[in-house]
């Protein structure tokens, strides 16, 4: 998404609903991220203006919670679970597989903008470990081969 | 006939939604197909329950979308033999029959998206009874009699907290539910919200009435979108029925409900950090005193309980405190839900009365190890808890008894490990977690956990040195003493318990530069046993760095200089010829 | 009121007050780094923990309230352990130098960065005062010191080290030109100290003990004071006129000099002891060491320092046309360059390793070569061969370099059967010097034949007798080493005379890991060296080779200083607490949370790598100023204090009120001086009042050497006045 083209009018609804409700910063940021896929600087400045919360505080909150991003992410956001059960069931191998397949590290996005990789805290699907979520879908009982297959399918689907 | 598909997050991840869609595409009457939450037999998902007209249930497990036609045929013909391959085994059925379910009583049975099903199961009777027949003090009394303690982990008496919040001065009070279930390996709370949200709402309403709060808030972690969705729906339904809002059951009692989604910070499970987060701030714990009961959300008296605690309350009010207290031990009453995972054969949710043993859970219900390796230890209480070794498998589930091992009851995560798990690696895993999740406010946690992690990292890389264990211990005790909040104070537990029970493993890493479990890649080497190698070339073809060479049908060899110890050859070899040492 | 006990003392405190408040009100100091009355209680640092009877957990005294009958211990073993580890952890993540490496590498701990910075700012009188805190003969030492400071100077990682020694000589020369600085001498203590030996060690001890108010007499066997500075250093390096002036300044403080008076002949240690309260033996090492090479006894073979002394005293020995100097140190350089000046035609320096391993100063090696000295590297004398008792030639064993030895230098090993012979008229052995043992026979000596002196207290085998310098322990070393000992010895003697116990513990200071320092953004600027006489001019006379810095050269050179040491060193609360506990952060050494960084505007400088995350800046900016120009970013170990979007301070709403700077307990946020070069100085702070818009307002003024360095707003009026620092300063002036 081109930074200069951040359509701030998309925030009107969120801000009119929450800007004056105290304690709503996190909620506003969550909605903002739902809209843009990340938290654009322009949006943060607008939120600051409308809520009266300093940008340093908004950024303080934004950078505290792992959910928030400040750069656009790929079409598919891979969230690989780092929970205990996944660890015990070799999630490390899955991480390696994804890194090898996509050539990206945790927190990075592929050059074609298709995939972003993020290692996340326990997704709570421990019985299916190792687990990853790609956008809204959960994939469990992963093996390196299964992971490769999933990535391949998504790549094909995107083309 | 009704066909009910288990649709918790795990079930969906395993394919339950695909199964449901496939069933909807058959000629089965769509009205006969419905959903339920999580029954807790996660290892058998997707699960489909078929209720006949006498409400007798036939449970099908590991159903795939390809089985939809078969089920449709059965629905038409009533020929049960069609389902033979899918019906749950007697052995697996025991996973449920050996449990005692109170908090989970409706999970996997009712449709969580339909309030009528909850009401049909006796729901909202308890709040009605409390509001119309009991004073708040009487409610607190019953809770006191039940002996229930906080299910978030510490087991602090619930009645005491309620009483403190009730006694606090001020018109405006808050009742808060902590659903920021962040322990890796724990998913009890998610299951309750996804499967029985009204039970939570009812428990919270009773709590709000008891402490005199007009506002109830649920703080749910952001990683649980389905739980948030179902809880929202449940709140809407309860509002429509007048169960949330003003003058509930025609009494003076009014209470509104609000859901706040977390944004990814484990520390927000700590109550003062949770409050900071609710207020829209960085989730950094506040100093105590003052305690939330005096000054909490918006500096008003607030009471915070965990999901599972609230999930027991309606049952306690309905059945009396004595009935609850009849289960369990002297110091730990009622039941406890555990999320059993790891190397155990049957993983899932287990609710059992306090006083049972770890063996009951892991072996009797969980079926023992799923691998051919021996049971080594169980991690309880996640990053705040500790490892309990195999020789203490008969430890009774009781706050005190578990605490005596160095572990804690915790919120209910039970990660089972076999001999292939390196305990130093395990401690490192948890420290990596707490170091990442440290809010950064206090020195001990912010820097202490990082330094411990660095030390453990060195040890697992074979760079440990004499005195490291003692230094780790010193740091552990100091962090326990000096950290500001529970996250920091308990962070050393995984290290301390693994040192306590597996000191020899630490010493092997440090002195002999060996990892007895064969997990630390820097301390192991792969080699091909020439006698077993058939020369199939599979390993060589899979090696990412071309470190394996050899002619077809002749033994291969690994160039250890090139080898990056990824373990792929070990995994792919069909003849067990790759040896790890 | 509440009654409670703190550290065994019964006190009362108003109900609702915290333990910290109660303790402070009763003069009990509990350390804390994140608490300040100006902002809400935070509880991050955990240093204020105390133990209360009956309460299992440690209490954070900043928030725990007093209660009736409470029994509190603020320094229990458990409390101290907790604070110690907290400080070790905090320090392990604090990437900063308290003190610059140049100062740390100076055996006398001279504040090099301080005086270099002052010179850069043109504050020469302040510079000389600072130098004279440690060195009483700076013009001389500036000329002769092999400057270990420069060896540690980080500027060499950019191009070359700062010319620290020459800058010192420059400042001292400036001082000698006009009204020379004289220290304040304390009131007389009535105690008498005798010092044997008027070399750099003896004179330094005399100077500082005199300033302390003691009556000091220096006894020396030579006709003039100065020791090796006078009799071992050639005129062309250190003109006697400079030395004379500096010694006369020492004399002016009130030291009594007794020359031509020799230990063992004119007096004994015991005889001096009988007349004085303390005696310091600083006799030096005046005997040239032997090489144990056959032929050393021949005529024409001289000891290095004997040769130099002879030349200086006007009775130079006969050296002929061909001279060989054996050795590679500075004495060898002095000898060969003196030989050149005496008119020798062929001057050889015989050294068993190569140029790279020579211990002498590089400049000296180069200048000697320019003057015509011939180096015979990788050779070692096998024998000095004579005729009629007079040396005629040297047989040299040819060497090669082998494996590195313990010192890290490659060990020279003989190439078997390969020798060389050179014809000589004289040989000068410049391989070291030793104590003349007979002189100090009253004292216990070690196996090397040197006086045994305590490393910290300089005490000897006789009570009340101290020993320092070349005559002690490991033997001869460089002058600045002896000066450092003398300074410390003066303190030890002072404590002894006052019957006090001297604390010799070295206080903890933070040092950066040299390997992690990045110099890539530093602009290269060539080192400035003073001009020297041309080689063909200087090799014919004994005029001083160096012409010294001009003022412009000195300023330009001083300006190259990288300012390694922390400006807040003298008032760092963090360091203060660290030094209170015996900390060892090395054991927790690991990754640093922040990259060394730099952001500054006209008044405030930020360096987050020194930040200890006490949050005082962020909290005061939000709670007191309602600005929130900066905030906490990220979380956990890498939490950072920064403006939003990492903007520079100048692009935020910061109004430069300076409150964050005032509250910062360390050097992460500092207020800059009104000077081009930022120098760590022991400023004097005072609260003063000015009138702003008709309102009385408080400001904090820092002064050094009488000059205002910073003016920091200190109340709501001055913080919100919108006045610039210049305007505030004008109000104070």
Structure explained in plain terms:
The complex is a heterotrimer of chains A (159), B (581) and C (733). Chain A is an alpha+beta fold. Chain A folds into two domains: 3-64; 76-158, Glutaredoxin (3-Layer(aba) Sandwich), CATH 3.40.30.10. In chain A, 45% of the residues lie in helices and 11% in strands. Chain A has helices at 12-18, 25-36, 41-51, 55-64, 84-88, 91-102, 144-158; strands spanning 76-81, 115-120, 132-134, 137-139. Chain A is elongated, with a radius of gyration of 18 Å. Chain B has five domains: 2-97, 3-Layer(aba) Sandwich (Glutaredoxin); 115-325, Rossmann fold (3-Layer(aba) Sandwich); 335-418, Ubiquitin-like (UB roll) (Roll), CATH 3.10.20; 423-512, NADH-ubiquinone oxidoreductase 51kDa subunit, iron-sulphur binding domain (de novo design (two linked rop proteins)), CATH 1.20.1440.230; 525-580, 2-Layer Sandwich (Alpha-Beta Plaits). In chain B, strand 3 and strand 4 form a beta hairpin. Chain B contains 23 helices and 17 strands. Chain C has four domains: 2-75, Roll (Ubiquitin-like (UB roll)); 192-286 and 435-497, FAD/NAD(P)-binding domain (3-Layer(bba) Sandwich); 287-433, FAD/NAD(P)-binding domain (3-Layer(bba) Sandwich), CATH 3.50.50; 587-732, Alpha-Beta Plaits (2-Layer Sandwich), CATH 3.30.70.20. In chain C, the strands form eight sheets. Chain C has a five-stranded mixed beta sheet with strand order 2-1-5-3-4, sandwiched between helices. The radius of gyration of chain C is 30 Å and the shape is elongated. The mean pLDDT of chain C is 94. Chains A and B meet through helix 2, helix 4, helix 5, helix 6 and strand 4 of A and helix 1, strand 9, strand 13 and helix 17 of B.
Give the topology.
The complex is a heterotrimer of chains A (159), B (581) and C (733).
Chain A (H helix, E strand, L loop, with lengths): L11 H7 L6 H12 L4 H11 L3 H10 L11 E6 L2 H5 L2 H12 L12 E6 L11 E3 L2 E3 L4 H15 L1
Parallel strand pairs in A: 1-2
Antiparallel strand pairs in A: 1-3, 3-4
Chain B lengths: L1 E5 L2 H6 L1 H9 L8 E4 L11 E4 L5 E4 L7 H10 L12 H8 L17 H6 L4 H9 L2 H11 L11 H10 L6 E6 L8 H8 L1 H15 L3 E6 L4 H16 L15 E6 L9 H8 L23 E5 H13 L1 H5 L9 E8 L5 E6 L4 H8 L9 E6 L5 E4 L9 H6 L8 E6 L4 H15 L5 H18 L7 H15 L3 H5 L2 H20 L13 E3 L9 H5 L5 E2 L7 E2 L9 H5 L5 E3 L1
Parallel strand pairs in B: 1-2, 5-6, 5-8, 6-7, 9-13
Antiparallel strand pairs in B: 1-3, 3-4, 9-10, 11-12, 11-13, 14-17, 15-16
Helix pairs in contact in B: 2-3, 6-10, 6-13, 7-8, 7-10, 9-10, 9-11, 10-13, 17-18, 17-21, 18-19, 19-21
Chain C lengths: L1 E5 L2 E5 L5 H7 L23 E4 L6 E2 L10 E3 L3 H16 L8 H5 L6 H9 L3 H9 L5 H7 L3 H5 L11 H14 L14 E5 L3 H12 L3 E5 L8 H4 L8 H13 L3 E3 L10 H7 L2 E4 L5 E2 L12 E3 H9 L9 E5 L3 H12 L4 E6 L10 H9 L3 E4 L1 E9 L2 E15 L5 E14 L2 E4 L3 E2 L30 E3 L11 H19 L37 H4 L12 H8 L14 H8 L18 E2 L3 E3 L9 H8 L7 E3 L6 E3 L16 H5 L5 E3 L12 E9 L2 E10 L2 E7 L2 H4 L5 H8 L1
Parallel strand pairs in C: 1-5, 6-7, 6-9, 7-8, 9-20, 11-18, 12-13, 12-18, 13-14
Antiparallel strand pairs in C: 1-2, 3-4, 3-5, 10-19, 15-16, 16-17, 21-22, 22-25, 23-24, 26-27, 27-28
Helix pairs in contact in C: 4-5, 4-8, 4-18, 5-8, 6-8, 8-18, 9-16, 13-14
């Amino acid at each position: 998404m081109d930074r200069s083209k951040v359509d701030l009018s998309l925030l009107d609804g969120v801000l009119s609903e929450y800007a004056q409700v105290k304690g709503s910063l996190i909620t506003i940021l969550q909605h903002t991220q739902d809209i843009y896929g990340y938290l654009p600087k322009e949006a943060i400045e607008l939120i600051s203006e409308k809520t009266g919360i300093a940008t340093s505080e908004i950024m303080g909150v934004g950078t505290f919670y792992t959910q928030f991003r400040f750069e656009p992410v790929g079409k598919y956001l891979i969230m690989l679970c780092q929970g205990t059960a996944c660890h015990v069931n070799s999630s490390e191998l899955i991480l390696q597989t994804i890194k090898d397949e996509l050539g990206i590290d945790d927190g990075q996005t592929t050059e074609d903008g298709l995939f972003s990789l993020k290692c996340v805290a326990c997704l709570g699907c421990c019985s299916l470990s190792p687990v990853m979520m790609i956008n809204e879908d959960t994939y469990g009982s992963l093996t390196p081969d299964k992971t490769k297959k999933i990535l391949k399918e998504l790549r094909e689907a995107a083309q | 006939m009704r066909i009910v598909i288990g649709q918790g997050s795990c079930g969906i991840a395993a394919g339950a939604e695909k199964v449901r869609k496939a069933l909807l595409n058959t000629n089965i009457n769509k009205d006969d197909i419905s959903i339920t939450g999580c029954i807790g037999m996660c290892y058998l998902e997707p699960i489909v329950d078929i209720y006949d007209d006498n409400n007798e249930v036939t449970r099908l497990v590991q159903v795939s979308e390809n089985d939809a036609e078969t089920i449709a045929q059965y629905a038409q013909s009533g020929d049960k033999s069609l389902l033979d391959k899918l019906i749950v085994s007697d052995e697996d059925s025991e996973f449920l029959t050996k449990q005692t379910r109170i908090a989970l009583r409706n999970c996997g049975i009712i449709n969580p998206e339909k309030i009528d099903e909850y009401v049909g199961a006796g729901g909202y009777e308890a709040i009605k009874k409390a509001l119309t027949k009991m004073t708040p003090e009487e409610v607190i009394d019953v809770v006191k009699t039940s002996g229930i303690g906080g299910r978030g982990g510490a087991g602090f008496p619930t009645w005491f907290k309620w009483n403190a919040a009730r006694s606090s001065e001020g018109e405006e009070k808050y009742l808060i539910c902590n659903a920021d279930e962040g322990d890796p390996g724990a998913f009890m709370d998610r299951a309750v919200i996804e499967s029985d949200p009204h039970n939570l709402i009812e428990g919270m309403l009773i709590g709000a009435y008891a402490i005199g709060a007009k506002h109830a808030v649920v703080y749910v972690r952001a990683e649980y979108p389905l739980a948030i969705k179902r809880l929202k729906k449940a709140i809407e339904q309860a509002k429509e029925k007048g169960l949330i809002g003003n003058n509930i059951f025609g009494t003076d009692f009014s209470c509104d409900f609000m859901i706040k989604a977390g944004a990814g910070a484990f520390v927000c499970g700590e109550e003062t950090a949770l409050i900071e987060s609710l207020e829209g701030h960085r989730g950094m714990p506040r100093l105590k005193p003052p305690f939330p009961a005096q000054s909490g959300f918006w500096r008003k008296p607030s009471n915070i309980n965990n999901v599972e605690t609230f999930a027991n309350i309606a049952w306690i009010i309905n059945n009396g405190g004595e009935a609850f207290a009849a289960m369990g031990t002297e110091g730990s009453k009622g039941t406890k839900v555990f999320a059993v995972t790891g190397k155990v054969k049957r993983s899932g949710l287990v609710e059992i009365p306090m006083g049972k043993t770890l063996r009951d859970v892991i072996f009797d219900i969980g079926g023992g190890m799923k691998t051919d390796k021996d049971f080594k230890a169980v991690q309880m209480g996640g990053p705040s808890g500790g490892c309990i070794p195999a020789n203490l498998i008969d430890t009774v589930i009781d706050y005190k008894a578990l605490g005596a091992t160095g572990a804690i009851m915790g919120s209910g995560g039970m990660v089972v490990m076999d001999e292939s798990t390196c305990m130093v690696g395990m401690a490192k895993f948890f420290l990596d977690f707490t170091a990442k999740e440290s809010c950064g406010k206090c020195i001990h946690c912010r820097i202490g956990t990082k330094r411990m992690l660095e030390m453990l990292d060195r040890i697992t890389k074979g760079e440990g040195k004499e005195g490291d264990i003692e230094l780790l211990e010193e740091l552990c005790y100091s962090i326990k003493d000096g950290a500001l909040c529970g996250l920091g104070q308990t962070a050393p537990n995984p290290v301390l318990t693994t040192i306590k029970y597996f000191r020899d493993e630490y010493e092997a890493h440090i002195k002999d530069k060996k990892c007895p479990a064969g997990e630390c890649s820097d301390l192991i080497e792969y080699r091909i046993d020439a006698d077993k190698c058939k020369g199939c070339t599979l390993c060589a073809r899979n090696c990412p760095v071309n470190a394996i060479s050899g002619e077809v049908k002749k033994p291969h060899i690994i160039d250890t200089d090139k080898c990056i110890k990824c373990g792929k050859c070990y995994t792919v070899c069909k003849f067990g010829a790759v040896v790890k040492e | 009121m509440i009654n409670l006990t703190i550290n065994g003392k019964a006190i009362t405190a108003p109900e609702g007050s915290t333990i910290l408040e109660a303790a402070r009100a009763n003069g009990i100091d509990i350390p804390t780094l994140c608490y300040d009355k100006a902002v809400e209680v935070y509880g991050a640092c955990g240093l204020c923990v105390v133990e209360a009877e009956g309460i299992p957990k440690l209490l954070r005294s900043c928030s725990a309230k007093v209660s009736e009958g409470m029994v509190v211990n603020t320094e229990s073993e458990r409390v101290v352990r907790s604070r110690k580890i907290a400080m070790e952890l905090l320090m392990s993540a604090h990437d900063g130098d308290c003190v610059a490496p140049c100062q740390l590498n100076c055996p006398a701990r001279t504040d090099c960065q301080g005086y270099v910075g002052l010179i850069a700012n043109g504050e020469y009188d302040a510079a000389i005062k600072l130098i004279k805190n440690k060195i009483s003969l700076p013009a001389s030492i500036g000329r002769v010191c092999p400057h270990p400071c420069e060896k540690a100077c980080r500027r060499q990682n950019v191009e070359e080290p700062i010319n620290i020694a020459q800058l010192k000589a420059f400042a001292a020369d400036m001082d000698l030109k006009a009204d020379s600085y004289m220290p304040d001498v304390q009131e007389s203590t009535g105690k008498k100290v005798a010092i044997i030996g008027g070399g750099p060690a003896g004179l330094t001890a005399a100077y500082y003990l005199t300033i302390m108010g003691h009556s000091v007499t220096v006894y020396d066997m030579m006709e003039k004071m100065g020791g090796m500075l006078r009799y071992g250093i050639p005129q062309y390096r250190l003109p006697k006129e400079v030395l004379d002036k500096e010694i006369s300044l020492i004399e002016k403080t009130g030291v009594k000099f007794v020359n031509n008076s020799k230990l063992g002949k004119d007096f004994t240690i015991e005889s001096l002891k009988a007349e004085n309260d303390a005696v310091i033996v600083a006799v030096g090492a005046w005997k040239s060491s032997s090489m144990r090479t056959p032929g050393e006894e021949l005529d024409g073979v001289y000891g290095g320092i004997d040769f130099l002394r002879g030349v200086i005293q006007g009775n130079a020995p006969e050296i002929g046309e061909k001279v060989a100097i054996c050795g590679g140190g500075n004495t060898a350089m002095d000898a060969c360059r003196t030989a050149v000046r005496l008119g020798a035609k062929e001057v050889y320096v015989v050294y068993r390793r190569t140029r790279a391993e020579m211990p002498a100063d590089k400049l000296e090696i180069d200048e000697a070569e320019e003057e015509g000295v011939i180096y015979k590297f990788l050779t070692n004398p096998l024998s000095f061969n004579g005729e009629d008792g007079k040396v005629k030639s040297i047989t040299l064993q040819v060497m090669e370099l082998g494996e590195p030895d313990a010192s890290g230098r490659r060990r020279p090993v003989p190439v078997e059967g390969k020798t060389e012979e050179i014809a000589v008229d004289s040989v000068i052995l410049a391989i070291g010097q030793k104590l003349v043992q007979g002189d100090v026979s009253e004292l216990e000596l070690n196996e090397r034949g040197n006086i045994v002196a305590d490393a910290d207290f300089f005490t000897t085998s006789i009570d009340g007798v101290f020993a320092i310098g070349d005559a002690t322990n490991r033997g001869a070393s460089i002058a600045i080493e002896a000066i450092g000992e003398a300074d410390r010895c003066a303190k030890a003697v002072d404590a002894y005379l006052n019957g006090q116990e001297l604390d010799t513990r070295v206080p903890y200071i933070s040092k950066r890991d040299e390997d992690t320092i990045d110099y890539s953004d530093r602009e290269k600027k060539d080192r400035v060296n003073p001009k020297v006489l041309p080689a063909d001019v200087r090799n014919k006379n004994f005029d001083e080779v160096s012409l010294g810095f001009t003022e412009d050269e000195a300023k330009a050179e001083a300006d190259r200083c990288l300012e390694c040491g922390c400006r807040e060193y003298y008032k760092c609360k963090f360091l203060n607490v660290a030094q209170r506990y015996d900390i060892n952060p090395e054991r927790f050494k690991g990754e640093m949370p922040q990259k060394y960084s730099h952001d500054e505007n006209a008044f405030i400088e930020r360096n987050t790598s020194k930040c200890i995350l006490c949050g005082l800046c962020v909290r005061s900016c939000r709670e007191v100023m309602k600005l929130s120009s900066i905030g906490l970013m990220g979380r956990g170990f890498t939490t950072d204090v920064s403006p939003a979007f990492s903007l520079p301070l100048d692009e935020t709403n910061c109004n430069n009120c300076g409150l964050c700077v005032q509250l910062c307990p360390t050097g992460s946020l500092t207020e800059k001086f009104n000077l081009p070069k930022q120098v760590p100085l022991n400023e004097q702070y005072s609260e003063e009042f000015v009138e702003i818009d008709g309102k009385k307002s408080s400001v904090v003024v820092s002064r050094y050497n009488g000059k205002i360095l910073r003016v920091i707003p200190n109340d709501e009026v001055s913080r919100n006045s919108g006045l610039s620092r210049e305007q505030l300063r004008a109000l104070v002036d």
